[in-house]
Design a protein that fits this description.
The structure is a homodimer of 500-residue chains.
Chain A lengths: L13 H21 L13 H5 L11 H12 L21 H13 L10 H17 L13 E5 L2 H20 L7 E6 L4 H9 L7 E4 L11 H13 L3 E8 L11 H11 L2 E5 L24 E5 H4 L7 E5 L2 H8 L9 H4 L18 H36 L4 E3 L7 E6 L6 H17 L6 E5 L2 E7 L7 H20 L11
GO molecular function (chains A, B): L-tryptophan decarboxylase activity; pyridoxal phosphate binding
Cofactor (chains A, B): pyridoxal 5'-phosphate
Organism (chains A, B): Daucus carota subsp. sativus (Carrot)
Chain lengths: 500, 500
C-alpha cells in the first residue's frame, strides 16, 4: 500500500511560502505607492476581460511571477481603486496594516469556527472583542455578554438583518400563528438602505407590508416618530401586525440620523422590535463628542454596524449586538448528530453558528483584535476625528463658493453638496450636477457618487480612505472648480437628458 | 484651514508594511512547521481566554511583536488545528499558497464589488472563473454564463440556499398568491445537512412543511425517489404546494449520494425546483472517474459546492450555479438612487449584489483564479486523487482488522467505520465507539468526529488536509489500535452512559 506519486503536488508548499509571500508583499507595496496615479473609477468597457481571457481553465500551471504580471496588466485597469486617496464615492472601505496582518493570520490558521470546540479561542476572542467594542462605543450594558446580551461578527449588515428579522418574525408567529406571516409589517424611512427591504422580503414578509415612511429636508431627512405612529395606527386598524422598526443612524444617502429615543419609546409602546442600523456611522461612536447621535439607544433591541467601512478592518467585519440572544437562538439554533459535542451540550459555551445564517465562519475576531490592540482606542479616536476634520474642511471649501450649496448638515464625514449657480429648476440642477460629477469621475482624478434627497440631486463626497490627506481634498476641490468652469461655459447643458 | 495633528496616526503605514508583513510571514511559516506537534483538538476549558484578558479595549497601542507573542502563548492553545496533518474531523478546510496569496491580494485591493462599476475586473473575473469551473466539473452548458445560466461566489452554502429558496418561493407566490407561503413544502433526506432546513425556515417556509425523508443502510443512506414521490403525493392531496427538493451528493454524515437523475425526473414531473447540494464532494468532479455521482445533473435547477472544503481555496469560497438567473433576480434584485450608474442601467453588465443576500462583496474570484492558474486542472486532479487514495488506504487498514467494520462505501475521501468486536447491541457499540473516539481525540495526536447513520454510531475519518500524508494515516491507525487495546481491556465500558 505504498503512496501513489500523487504527492508530487504540494499545495501547502512551506519551502517556497516565505519567498513567494515576499513577492506578493512587494507587489502590494508597489500598488500602494502608485495607487494615486491610477484613474480612480475604472475606465474599461463592459466585457473587456472576457475578451482577453481564454474560455476554459488552464490544464498546466503558471508561475506566480506571470500571474502577478497579469494582475498588473489585465486586472488593475479593471479595478475601481477604493484605496486611492482620491476615492470619495459610496463610503470608504478603510484598511490598515493591523487588519491586513489579521487577515493573513486568519487565513493561515484557516479554522472553521461553527462551534466552540472547533477552536475555542475563536469563539472566546469574539466574545471578548464584542464586549470591548460595545464598551468602546458606550453601548448599554444590556447589549454586552457581561449584561446578558451579546454581539457577533458577520460578513454584512444584510446577514444581520435577515437573522434579526427572522427572530422577530418567529417570536410573532409563535404568538399569532404561522398564517400571520402575511400580516407582519416592517417600518423604515425613504432614506433607509434598501438592504432592509431586501432582508424583510428574504424572510418572507410580503413586500407590500414594507412601509417606506417619507422624510424631507425639514427634518434633514430624519424620520418623524409621529409619522411612524400614524402608519402603525393605520396598520393596526387594518388588522395587520406591526413587527419591526428600523432606525438609521448615518444613512447612506445623506448620513441623516433618525431619532432613536423617540422611535424607541414608540417601539416600546406598540411592541415593535427596534433595530438601529449604523453601518457607516457606528465606528464614529468611539468618540464621545459624536455619541449624542445614539441618544436613546437603550430603547433599541439590536444595533448593527460595518467596521469594514470606517474602522480600518478591511472587508469584511460587520457587527451586530442584541439584548436578547435567546430570541435569536429560538429562531436560528439547529444542529445535527455530526456536530454534537460535550461542550455544546453542557450549555457552558456559545456556538456562534446559532447567531448567523451559515454554519462555517472565519476567525474574523482575530483581525478585529489586532486592530484594537495595535492601535488602541486612542488612535481609533484620532482616526475618526481626522476624517471628520477633513469633511469639515471640504464643507468649508464648498461654502466659500457662492455657486455651491451644502444641502444637509455634515454629521460625520460625508458632505452632500451641489452646484446651484442660478435659480434653476430641480430637474435642470439634477442634469447640471450629474454632468459635473461625471466630468470629475471621467477625468480619473477623483471619484464621487450621488444621491437623490427628496427631489434634490446631490453629489456625495465621502471622506476618509486610509490614505486621503488634506492635499487630496484640496486637489478635489480644484478639480471641481475646473470642471465647473468648463460646464458653465457650455450653453446647452440644461437641454440634456438625464442619463439614468 | 491647516490640517489638525490628527495625521500623526497612519493606519496604512507603507513604510513599515513590508517589514511587518515579513514578521507575520515568519510567524506563519513557523506555525506550519510545528502544527503537527500541537494537540489537534484544543484542550482548553470553557472560559480560558476570558480569564486571561482584560474587560475593556486598550487605550494605548501595542507592538506587533508583543501581539504575535500573545497569539503564540494565548491563542494557539485555544486553536483546534484544522491545518494539522492529523486533523481528520468534519471535512478538511484545505489551503494552498495560491489561495493564501489570493487572499492577500484581495485584502490589499479591498474593493467592495456590489456592482460592475465598483470594479469591473471583479465581476468579469468572477464570470470567467465560474464558467471555467463549470466546464472543469463538466456541468451542463445551461449552468454557464455562456449558456444563459450563471454562477456566483458566496461565503457559504447557507447563503446560496437562502437565495435559491427565496427565488423558488417568490416564483410560487406569484402563481399561487402570497397567502400560500404557509403551504409551500421542501423535501430532503435525513442525511441532508441541517443548513437546508435552516435556510427554508429563514425564508419563511413553516418548519412543519420541511419533509425529512428517511433513508437506510439498504441504499447506503441515499434518497429513494419513490419515497419522495409518495411524500409529494400526500402533500398534494392535503392541498399543499411542493416547492423544492434538495439532493445531496456527498452528505456530511457519510458522503452518501442521492440519485440526481431519478430525483430530477421526479422534480420535473411535479414542477419542483431541484437543487444539488455538493458542498464537500463538488470539488471531486474535476476528476472524470468520479463524475458518475453527478449523473442526471442536467435535470437540476441549481447546484452548490464549497471549494473551501476540498479545492485548496481557504475559507471562504462557496460556489452556486443556476440555469435561470432571471428567477433569482426577480426575487433579489433591488437598488437605490445612490447605486444607480450607466453601466447597470444599460443592462450590459452583471451586478452580483443581485445574486446574493448582501450588497457588499469581497473580490473572492481573484483567489479562485490564482488557484486555477497556479495549479492548473492537472494538479487539482492530482490533489483530489491523492486524497481518494489516502481514504482507500485507510479503508484497507480498517478492513484488515476483523474487529472493525467499514459501515458505508467510501465514495470520496471519507471513511465511516466502527469498532465492532462482538455481537454487541447498537447502544453499547455507540458507547464503545464514542469512548474510542474520545480516547483518540483527547490524546491530542489526532482528531476525528462522528455521525449517527440510522441507529449506527460511526467514527468519521475525513482524509485530505493540505499536509496529510500516508505516514499520518498510518500513525492514526496505530493510535486507533493502541486505544482499542486499552478500551477492550477495561471491563465496564458498556455500562457507561452515552455522554451527549
Amino acid at each position: 500500500m505504498g503512496r501513489l506519486p500523487a504527492l508530487s503536488f504540494d499545495p501547502l508548499n512551506i519551502k517556497d511560502f516565505a519567498s513567494e509571500s515576499n513577492k506578493v508583499i512587494e507587489f502590494i507595496t508597489n500598488y500602494y505607492k502608485t495607487v494615486h496615479k491610477y484613474p480612480v473609477r475604472s475606465q474599461v468597457e463592459p466585457g473587456y476581460l472576457q475578451d482577453l481571457y481564454p474560455k476554459t481553465a488552464p490544464f498546466q500551471p503558471t508561475s506566480l511571477e506571470t500571474i502577478l504580471q497579469e494582475i498588473q496588466t489585465d486586472i488593475i485597469p479593471g479595478i475601481t481603486h477604493w484605496q486611492s486617496p482620491n476615492f470619495f464615492a459610496y463610503f470608504p472601505a478603510t484598511i490598515s496594516n493591523a487588519a491586513f496582518h489579521g487577515e493573513m493570520l486568519c487565513n493561515a490558521l484557516n479554522i472553521v469556527g461553527f462551534n466552540w470546540i472547533c477552536s475555542p479561542a475563536a469563539t472566546e476572542l469574539e466574545m471578548i472583542v464584542m464586549d470591548w467594542l460595545g464598551k468602546m462605543f458606550n453601548l448599554p450594558q444590556s447589549f454586552l455578554f457581561e449584561g446578558k446580551g451579546g454581539g457577533v461578527l458577520q460578513g454584512s449588515t444584510s446577514e444581520a438583518l435577515v437573522c434579526l428579522l427572522a427572530a422577530a418574525r418567529d417570536r410573532a408567529l409563535k404568538q399569532y400563528g404561522e398564517e400571520s406571516i402575511t400580516k407582519l409589517v416592517v417600518y423604515a424611512s425613504d432614506q433607509t438602505h434598501f438592504v432592509v427591504k431586501k432582508a424583510a422580503k428574504l424572510v418572507g414578509i410580503p413586500p407590500k407590508n414594507f412601509r417606506v415612511i417619507p422624510t424631507s429636508l425639514a427634518t434633514c431627512f430624519a424620520l418623524k416618530p409621529n409619522d411612524v405612529k400614524m402608519a402603525i395606527e393605520r396598520d393596526l386598524e387594518s388588522g395587520l401586525v406591526p413587527l419591526f422598526l428600523c432606525a438609521t443612524v448615518g444613512a447612506t444617502s445623506s448620513s441623516s440620523v433618525d431619532p432613536v429615543e423617540g422611535l424607541g419609546l414608540l417601539a416600546q409602546k406598540y411592541g415593535l422590535w427596534l433595530h438601529v442600523e449604523a453601518a457607516y456611522a457606528g465606528s464614529a461612536f468611539v468618540c464621545p463628542e459624536l455619541r449624542h447621535y445614539l441618544k436613546g439607544i437603550e430603547h433599541a433591541d439590536s444595533i448593527s454596524m460595518n467596521l469594514h467601512k470606517w474602522l480600518l478592518t478591511n472587508l469584511d467585519c460587520s457587527c451586530m449586538w442584541l439584548k436578547k440572544p435567546s430570541v435569536l437562538l429560538d429562531s436560528l439554533s439547529m444542529t445535527a448528530d455530526y456536530m454534537r459535542n460535550e461542550a455544546s451540550e453542557s450549555k457552558q459555551v456559545v456556538d456562534f453558528m446559532d447567531w448567523q445564517i451559515a454554519s462555517g465562519r472565519r476567525f474574523r475576531a482575530l483581525k478585529l483584535w489586532l486592530v484594537l490592540r495595535r492601535y488602541g482606542v486612542k488612535n481609533l479616536m484620532t482616526h475618526i476625528r481626522s476624517d471628520v476634520d477633513l469633511a469639515k474642511h471640504f464643507e468649508a471649501l464648498v461654502k466659500s463658493d457662492k455657486r455651491f450649496e451644502v444641502v444637509v448638515p455634515v454629521n460625520f464625514s460625508l458632505v452632500c453638496f451641489r452646484l446651484k449657480p442660478n435659480e434653476e429648476t430641480e430637474e435642470s440642477l439634477k442634469i447640471l450636477n450629474w454632468k459635473l460629477m461625471e466630468a470629475v469621475n471621467s477625468s480619473g482624478r477623483a471619484y464621487m457618487t450621488h444621491a437623490v434627497l427628496g427631489d434634490i440631486f446631490v453629489i456625495r463626497c465621502a471622506l476618509g480612505t486610509s490614505s486621503t490627506e488634506e492635499k487630496h481634498v484640496n486637489e478635489l476641490w480644484n478639480l471641481i472648480q475646473e470642471k465647473t468652469r468648463h460646464i458653465l461655459k457650455e450653453k446647452c447643458w440644461n437641454e440634456l437628458q438625464f442619463p439614468i
